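Input.
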Amino acid sequence: MVTPLSIPSPPYEFQGIELGIFDIKTYALCILVGIVVAALLTSRRLTKRGAEPGVIIDIALWAVVFGILGARIWHVATHPADYFFVEGRNLIDTLYNIVAIWEGGNAIFGSLVGGAFGIWIASRTTGLRFWSIADALAPGLLFAQAIGRLGNWFNHELFGQPTDLPWGLEIEYSNSAYPIGLAEGTLFHPTFLYEILWNVFGAVLILLIERQWRLQWGKVIALYLIWYGSGRIWFESIRVDPSEVIFGLRSNVWGAILAVALGVIIWIVQTRRHPGIEPGPYRPGKEWVAPGKAVDSVYTASDFEHGDDAESPSDPAKGEGAGAGRPPATSGSASRP
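Output.
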């Protein structure tokens, strides 16, 4: 039964705007806004560390394309009954439905895998460290995912189990995803709202932790994976939309568990491999030099790096650590075109 504090679903006409031959989906706009927000925040964080202004464009081109491909592949793989061996559907129709990403069907865990591959390519082409890019991106990812979840609200989709809580989500009885056997007017958990709040709070928390402990070398993205995966384990467990079940758990619950496990592994491995401080966002010899800045031919980044390519955490003023008593190094030898 609808209560005064329940959350209504938007009218169906809010799901898109028709401009001539173009049908602009609100869900797509939410995703695009999220991408822009993540790109702007990531760009600011990278340039603040010394990366070339505008390098985020080079990164985004790879990350977004592979992120979209990964999202679609993951979705199709975890919903095979929707795409393969459908009665009355020929091979051409099957292929169309597989590639028709504009009709919906994206999985965030697939986008993370694909996006990570795109970032790796971008790190090769720009000279930036993979972990520097990943760490800079982590908070923006959470903000982007929070914005993107608004699209589920506009689409009346991916809601949770029935609830008698006053903030339950109103879903029309005619919705094809409405669970069979439930009475009209049943309220559902607004999982889109839960994830928005979880992601925004997580982004702020990670920024505060990063600043307090000066996290680098992949530890920020590790925190992201642990935080986001932990939330998704619960969100996915209470959703009612169809999904492939593997060993009693929804496929995306397994994806969330793997995200948490990967975050823990990255944290442990990177802490052991890189106990020091990142000397900069670029790999040695790939540094970008701002126009007009001279290059120090005597002292280079390699003078204060050791073994694991990290700056010694020792205090130079006390004469300890690599590079003690020497002036700080400037960036590398040439500007990247």
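Residues 92 and 277 are 54 Å apart (CA to CA).
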